[in-house]
Design brief:
Blueprint: H1 16-37, H2 42-79, E1 86-90, H3 96-104, E2 109-114, H4 126-135, E3 142-146, E4 159-165, H5 174-187, E5 188-198, H6 202-212, E6 215-221, E7 236-241
Parallel strand pairs: 1-2, 1-4, 2-3, 4-5
Antiparallel strand pairs: 5-7, 6-7
Helix pairs in contact: 1-2, 2-3, 5-6
Length: about 240
């Protein structure tokens, strides 16, 4: 059985977020101490303690998602897919989904494309992704390339499976995100599937894929394991199939 989390270092998604949550929590706990011992305002201190603890819980949930939860979710997603021959992972980062896909499908050749922005993932870079692939002994079947999701370096109808894990939403415009979905559709061969796991913008992708003629289109929640601090920042899983010719 394939382990939920492959070997290697996969960094932290949007690393500034959990540290911000932690910092806010600490500040409120300091305020609480001041309220109890300096200002003699116990009700205010209790409120500050509650806010500080809430921020701490949110940070802990975020850390769990980025280090454990997302791997468990993707393991289940990949287990429900037919074996592909060629896979493209859009916005692959340090290769978490790319490596997991290669481990799950030993006959597949997998390609990851990214712009390697460290604001989206700590320590992001092709060397880090390649190191993770080598640790899992799948580097002979993986290729990491620098490329934009809105202009994928792949031929039309050349890929059996397209994946994107919490990546497309980083494109700042509606037009840009739609173009990324269009590119995923372009490179996907007829009869093949794409899986987009993302936050906030999934309904946008669903509408665009409906316009493109996708079939077997579904959206479901990923559950608490991919809460990015809480249910207000939940993740959804979109699956779609390109009609066969």
């Amino acid at each position: 059985m394939t382990r939920a989390r492959p070997l290697g270092d996969y960094g932290t998604d949007a690393p500034w977020v959990p540290w911000l949550l932690t910092g806010i929590g600490v500040v409120y706990l300091v305020f609480a101490g001041c309220a109890f011992w300096l200002w003699d305002t116990v009700p205010t201190g209790i409120v500050f303690v509650a806010i500080g603890l809430l921020m701490g819980v949110c940070a802990a949930i975020y850390w769990h998602t980025t280090f454990r939860g997302k791997f468990a979710v993707w393991q289940e997603v990949l287990a429900g897919l037919p074996a592909p021959h060629r896979v493209l992972d859009m916005g692959c980062g340090r290769g978490a989904v790319t490596v997991m896909t290669a481990l799950r499908f030993p006959a597949a050749r997998v390609e990851g494309v990214d712009l390697w922005r460290s604001i989206d993932q700590s320590g992001n870079g092709p060397d880090a992704a390649a190191a993770n692939a080598a640790l899992n002994a799948v580097d002979d079947r993986l290729l990491f390339r620098t490329g934009d999701m809105t202009a994928l370096p792949c031929a039309d109808a050349s890929v059996d499976l397209v994946t994107a894990s919490v990546s497309i939403h980083n494109i700042p415009t509606v037009t840009g995100r739609a173009q990324a979905v269009d590119e995923a559709w372009r490179v996907l061969r007829p009869g093949a599937q794409m899986v987009i796991v993302d936050i906030a913008k999934v309904r946008e992708y669903e509408r665009r894929l409906t316009q493109l003629g996708a079939i077997e289109l579904s959206v479901r929640g990923a559950g608490w394991r991919m809460w990015w601090s809480g249910p207000w920042m939940a993740t959804r899983i979109l699956r779609a199939t390109k009609p066969a010719d």
